[in-house]
Each structure stands twice: as C-alpha cells, then as structure tokens.
Amino acid sequence: MITVKPQDALLIIDVQNDFLPGGSLAVPGGDEIISVINRLGRLPFGAVIATQDWHPVEHMSFVGSGGLWPEHCVAGTQGAELATLLSDEFISIILRKGRYKESDSYSAFFDNAGRTTGLSSLMDGLGIARVFIAGLALDVCVTATAKDAQKTGFDTFVIMDACRGIGSVHEAETRLSDVGIAMVQSDGLA
Ligand code: VGL
Ligand code: ZN
C-alpha cells in the first residue's frame, strides 16, 4: 500500500468532454475513470493539478491543418471543458496546454518542441517529490507526461485503472516500464 503524503501530486490529464464517448476524439471507456479519479481526489495529495488540452481553431494537430487528429478541445468550447462529472472541489491548479497554433503539447511539462510549460518549477516550489498520473489518453498525453515527469526528477507513478488509451495499452506499458515508471492501481493508494 502506498500512503499519500503532502509531497505527492495527483496529475489529472485531459479529462475533457471531447475525449469521452460522444466527444470528437473519444477515448473508449474514458468515462469509466471519472469515479475512480473522484475517489483519488479525496486522498491527502499536496497538489491536485488538472490539465486541459486547449487548442486554437485551425490548430496544427487537426486533420484540416495537416495534423493527425480530428478537431478537438477548441479553447472555450463545451468539448474543451473538464468532464461534467469530474469533481472539481479538490483541483488546486488547472494547466492549459497546446494553446499555440504552430505547436502541440502532449506532455504537461514540455511542448512537442521542448519548451517548458512551467509545471516542473511550479511543483518544485510546492515541495512535490512524487507524481501520480491519471487521465486520457494513456498512450498519448499520459505517457508523454509520465516520461517527462520521471526525466525531470519526480518519482513517477501511473494509476492504470484511472487511465484509458486510444491505441495499444500493452505498448504503453512497455514504454513506461522501459524508463522505470511504476504502474499502480487506485486501490493501492491510501
Ligand atoms: C491527446 C491526441 C491529441 C491526449 C491530445 O490528451 O491524449 N491526444 N491531443
Ligand atoms: Zn490535442
């Protein structure tokens, strides 16, 4: 059992309407993690940080602009809102990423061109040493965030039953374990 302490942060990645079933970039089962995260949020984390993918219209990641993904999480739209059923009383910080037309940001720490979002210095300032990660999509933004968290010096855990992926879960697990990131279940935290 892992005992959650004030030096621990919970990072909730992109639990937004567009990534839920019915959304424009739906992650299968994405809605199933919300109740798990709502329980995790009551544990005594020193910080609970939620991210939002927050794109301008005609963002470079959209198919219509030569990118990979259908239009999603356009800033200010209903699809970009945090999931309605996600409790927000325990969220202390909201970080928006992917805000510039010409760059994408899968990771909450650095954009895809390597520029910092400021998250690591923010967490350093809060005295955070361990990071626990939940959210969507396991094989895209969760994995990118976990790898950067570990690289930046945080002891990093992915809470597997609090994540869902778009592609192969097995491949994501390999990428995480290759760099020494721990994979845990939500009932292993107290
Ligand atoms: C994501 C694809 C495009 C994610 C964001 O949150 O995993 N995936 N933008
Ligand atoms: Zn995106």
TrEMBL record:
Record carries keyword Hydrolase: yes
Pathway stated in the Swiss-Prot or TrEMBL entry: Cofactor biosynthesis; nicotinate biosynthesis; nicotinate from nicotinamide: step 1/1
InterPro entries membership: Isochorismatase-like_dom, Isochorismatase-like_sf, Isochorismatase_Nicotinamidase
Molecular function via GO: metal ion binding; nicotinamidase activity
GO BP terms: pyridine nucleotide biosynthetic process
Similarity field: Belongs to the isochorismatase family.
Isochorismatase-like domain residues: 9-167
Enzyme class per UniProt: hydrolase
Record-given protein name: nicotinamidase
Keywords from the named record: Hydrolase, Metal-binding, Pyridine nucleotide biosynthesis
EC number(s) on file: 3.5.1.19
Keyword Metal-binding: yes
